[in-house]
């Protein structure tokens, strides 16, 4: 049984598949340690639900997909602190996390899971008093608009298109995507073509190998793509990839802690290069793989094991070896396409994706990570 008695562990970022999972595991496996989880909101937002949640009120996601931390910890050794990290003071062993409100939290081991910064309706506010109004405004914008342009044809753009067409089949939806096919080359050409076919059957227009450089505010706009295509729109939504939420890391530990994409540089053990007592996981790391909840959950298991080993003085930490690329993309409640990177790549269609993801958006699984049955 791990000991690491009377040690203090601070986890920054409480995503249901990442920081919260690591905190829950550490709470269970280190009952004598003190675990503190910091998050700006008093609940984890199940991110796969955001397109459906912000398009329409035809769901219960505000009640089920904003998951409180009250059942997270397995033992009485866990504490949740609502706040925003301002900076970290890292010493040779341990350090202090300073919050924007002045609170100071010392640590023997620190886990960074800050996640990403998004645009448009994916950018759920950090202010809990503003979240429901933000969602209501987004829903009203989608309901009012007849011609909607989605800038970015990755998973987020595709899922927004599917949710819009589910509720309003007659609305005109256009995706503008920079690559020669939807998503990216991490996935097979067959899978990418299947996505395009599924969307076109629903009447979604797709413009490939082109860009929209400026996103107008909500409301009617005439946009011109980089290649000169003119599109009349009532609503233009950025559905491009996010950027890491790592400014506080560079501010605290130096710009060389991050790579050129502002991702946290980590060793295979998910420790920071020059800080063996600081671990990082999730979207904000420079691990070369697609940024997904499933990947972050795998990081959480490695980080929890390695934090325990580090605090017990062991040098036998586990490396994160990655995993095959897999993705399930919902196209509304009853359809979708999936890819599994086994045996050269396996594609799956509507029935499989509906059963695993589209119908529930994996909310029961996310709630399970947070201690809810």
UniProtKB/TrEMBL annotation:
Keyword Flavoprotein annotated: yes
One cellular-component annotation, GO: cytoplasm
Residue intervals of the FAD/NAD(P)-binding domain: 8-294
Molecular function, one GO term: electron-transferring-flavoprotein dehydrogenase activity
Keyword annotations: FAD, Flavoprotein, Oxidoreductase
Coiled coil: none
Superkingdom per UniProt: Eukaryota
Similarity field: Belongs to the FAD-dependent oxidoreductase family.
Protein's UniProt name: FAD/NAD(P)-binding domain-containing protein
Species of origin: Mycena belliarum
